[in-house]
Amino acid sequence: MQESLTMKKLFALAAFGASLAIAPVVAHADDDAIVLHRQSVMEGIGAGMGTVVCVLKKQCDLPQKVVIRQAKTMHFLAKMNLEAFRAKTEGPLGVKTTALPKIWSDWADYEKDNKEMVEATEGLIKAAASSIEPQSLGPAVQALGKVCKECHDDFREKH
Ligand code: HEC
After folding, report:
1. Tell me, what DSSP letter sits at residue 24?
2. Which residues approach ligand 1 with their CB closer than 6 A?
3. Around 114, how many Cα atoms within 13 Å sit in the side-chain half-sphere?
4. 9 part of a folded domain
5. 19, 27, 153, 155: which has the highest count of C-beta atoms within 10 A?
């Protein structure tokens, strides 16, 4: 039983290897990992934004301390985001990316946009710490949303 499973695994591996060998372009495994990493950082920020907007619209009833923690996580991820994008990735890639090459040719601008996101998440932490009512949370979420859009407009393929 054990043996036949192992054999099955070996055959599967062999088939996988063969499929790689006949693939028309060989993707850069490291670059793929870099793309997946930076996308997961962005997804984390996106998920945080979803939660905060849900609280703002009063569709999610979360305690204030959870909202503060969420804002802190977004702040941490925003700082991490700069490093996640620092390495220039070049095709052919095995994974889909919407990042524009302009990120690396205009790195100073990209860095500036990222800094604005770091500052806007700081603003979100402060706002949430003061109150999670719309008059406090609203302007901070709006300011952050503007920063997301600005960078996506400049550095991300339209999709
Ligand atoms: C400094 C620039 C910059 C800022 C600021 C920024 N993003 Fe992004 N974001 C990008 C780039 C570039 C991509 C494309 C990454 C790729 O496909 O390799 C991206 C992709 C994404 C994705 C898709 C990830 C995936 O799985 O493909 C989400 C979701 C996202 N961003 C959410 C946000 C939110 C929400 C904010 C604001 C809180 C934000 N981003 C702020 C540059 C930025």
Report:
1. S
2. 35, 38-39, 42-43, 45-46, 49, 97-99, 103, 110, 113-114, 117, 144, 147-148, 151-152, 155-156
3. 21
4. no
5. 155
Please give the DSSP secondary-structure letter assigned to residue 157.
-
Token pair 């100073």 is at which residue? Answer: 108
Which pLDDT value is given to residue 28? 75
Q: What one-character-per-residue DSSP string does 91-156 give?
A: S--SS---B-THHHHTHHHHHHHHHHHHHHHHHHHHHHHH--SHHHHHHHHHHHHHHHHHHHHHHB
Q: Name the domain count of the chain.
A: 1
Residue that wins the pLDDT comparison between 55 and 26: 55
54 in any annotated domain: yes
Q: Show the domain range for 128.
A: 26-155
> CB-hemisphere CA count at 13 Å for 49?
20
CATH number of the domain to which 151 belongs? 1.20.120.10
b/e code 51-61 from CB counts within 10 Å (16+ = b): bbeebbeeeee
In a domain, 15, yes or no: no
Task: Render pLDDT for 119-153 as a digit per residue (tens, 0 to 9).
Answer: 999 999 999 999 999 999 999 999 999 999 999 99
Residue 35 in domain: yes
Point out the annotated binding site: 148, 151-152
